[in-house]
Design a protein that fits this description.
The chain is mainly alpha-helical. It is built from 5 helices and 3 strands; from the N terminus they run H-E-H-E-H-E-H-H. The chain has a 3-stranded parallel sheet with strand order 2-1-3. Strand 1, helix 2 and strand 2 form a beta-alpha-beta unit. It is elongated and about 55 Å long.
Length: 118
Amino acid sequence: RFANVTATEAISVAVHDESCVMINRNQGSGTRILIDQHLSGRRPNGYAVQAKNHNAVIAAIEQHRADWGIAIESVADHPSIRFLPLQDEHFDFAVPKDRINRPAIAAFCALLQESSDK
């Protein structure tokens, strides 16, 4: 059903196939915001069923309770799951200004500066 398509194309195919059941994420999660952006107001079969985390999304798919969902790649790395990259994620490191000079925080910031995955 999703052979030779991008993740965005797969979502479009799934949304238009009533036999294709999604597993959603809980309201307020970053993944749910991403899902809703890609669905553009559409509510495919399974939209009301919400998983609380990425592992629960993959479990629902593995247990054949859903045909598709959105989760992070590290969780989706299972032999029975096909992963289609949707978008890269970027995170910011937040710390109160009055704690920035603590040794552990300074060490972590130094690691971030050295990392090629900034």
